[in-house]
Prior knowledge:
Chain A is α/β, with parallel strands linked by helices. Chain A has four helices and seven strands, in the order ααββαβαββββ. The interface between A and B is medium-sized, with 28 and 31 residues.
Amino acid sequence: MVATRHPRETSVWRALAEVTDPEIPTIGLVDLGVIGEIAFELRPGGGERLTVDLLPTFVGCPAIEVMRQRIGERLIELGVADEVVVNVSFAVPWTSERITPAGREALRRSGFAPPPEARTFAGDELLAVLPAATCPYCGSRRTTLENPFGPTLCRAIYHCADCRQPFEQFKSV
Amino acid sequence: MSELDAATGDALGELLLAMADDEFVLGFWDSEWTGIAPILEEDVAMSSVSQDEIGHAKALYELLADLTGQDSDSIAFGRSPDGYRHAALMNHPRTDWAFTIARRFLYETADAVRLESLAGSSYEPLANLARKMRREETYHLLHFDLWLRRLIEGGPDSRNRLIAALQRLWADAQGVFAPLAGEAQLLAARILPESIEALRQRWLARITPRFVELGLPAMPAPPLPAPDARTLHGADFGWLHSEFTMVAASEAGATW
């Protein structure tokens, strides 16, 4: 993907990578996997429009509006198009696998367990959504799920038996 | 998908409104548990589940808004109580915890059947959203199935309250699958891959063995959904409506 990108698109992706999550400022939106396609098109009345697809982690995520606004501001500032449209899209669903390796590391550094790597969601296999978590503080696997519903829609609460810390894990969806 | 004709567009609007109102109204009722649920973890869980439902409602209202050219906030908050199309199951107040769990179990299992089917809808925006919602609803299903089991095993009081609530809600729960006026158009356009009655039968075939497995008494023979299951709402919903429209009504068009 990167190799064939037009330089202008590369600059857009670079700018998007600098826009961070409103709640966890150590992770960028590109690493979080919430940016879908970007596209330039000519407007009927002249000038160019840049469209960015934003894929919510959860449908009801209240941070979407803030993300949309920040993306719009950053890309207008970049000056590559006359108009920027940020389009919330479900055509490609955000899944926890969209978080990049760098994003997983950024989450861990901020004290959040990244979602389990091998995800086997099959809709009807309920247990597949709640695998064990690794403590982001001490690396222990002796952890227990305290609540599948955490302080935000996308996070569950666990407790580590070794370092005795509660921590949050990004849910597998 | 090609342009929808007027009748199919209207029928699709009716389907979206029914689903959105189910999620919206239930989200508001259950958000009342925030701060007063039986345990702290459940305060957090119910708030999160309710926020999911209201988020799903918002996304569905937006699909409807794209279809009709209205905006989603005015659809959500701008109607009088008799303009809502949620099923009768959602007319009841939250009542006690057993009642809430009974309703959630009946609704989540019904909604799962509905979403599974709509994931194959020919109307792509709806199919996409249904696929995304299913991933989130899986957590709800898991959670409320667990609570159902806890209340059954928790002793005679919780078990009896749960059974009484399931029996009281049984007829109204059928109304989640009340036929829609424009159903024939939706089926012809493959927007609905199967009839709503077929979905109800699948739901019954799934939950009936679950009740047996959990040692619950058999439910009465399920009545057909009442014709007014999505149009008659009663006084409790009237009160809830005045609550959730209060801010929007206090200053028309305000933003924050």
